[in-house]
Amino acid sequence: MKVTVDQDLCIACGTCIDLCPSVFDWDDEGLSHVIVDEVPEGAEDSCARESVNECPTEAIKEV
Question: What is the CATH architecture of 3-62?
Answer without folding.
Answer: 2-Layer Sandwich (3.30)
